[in-house]
């Protein structure tokens, strides 16, 4: 396949630098990124910790660096939206993160909602549907997107779930590496399946070494495995026996095919680099920026 030519902006998840938000923003600029994604779940970017003046200061500081915000991360961990006892608080916090995103100049918040169960008649499926229907409606009304990250289930199954929500406020943050590492789903086919929903992407790469039950990676309410924990997943991706996250361009993601598929569906949004493992994430991120810039004309 011929090398596709892209015009997409390149982003970096600030937290991947592991040096705090302010220093991470500077490093993202130095690495040549056009924009950044920032975790807004806890710490200095938790909406509860950001009064209006602080929000304006951060927005001005990011703009002063010549950066945009591609999205905020609003992933609240645990069982996503599978536990009805926790959903009210999680839905309300997700709304606050969406409001913060709009104030900072982005329409997108990315998240994990938990694995969509195969059985549409299950209680977990119903619980997730009710929560996501409310969040989709809220996002749609404010011209925003609450974007589910791909990986825990196949693209076809995720599309079926999204089609049932009644609006596109809940949409997709496409991560090709999660697909190749866990379900073994094909990102190229996945892009075409989810073409109506993709509003943001993560640029990440990986390899699958063995079969693994997605519930043992992402957890599931009522299942014996632990709930979703990013540190646990990062450990699995670095030293586990089932899959590994690797530097961009060195794994199983077919970048020519994947980027061509994004071109084919008319995706114009960000390719945002995520590096969750490795002893020198800054070096890996810089190489990833250069790798993606290699697809520009």
Automatic annotation (TrEMBL):
GO terms for molecular function: isomerase activity. SUPFAM superfamilies: Xylose isomerase-like. Coiled coil: none annotated. The keyword DNA repair does not apply. Keywords: Isomerase. Residues 25-293 form the Xylose isomerase-like TIM barrel domain. InterPro entries: IolE/XylAMocC-like, Xyl_isomerase-like_sf, Xyl_isomerase-like_TIM-brl. It holds the Pfam family AP_endonuc_2. This is Sugar phosphate isomerase/epimerase.
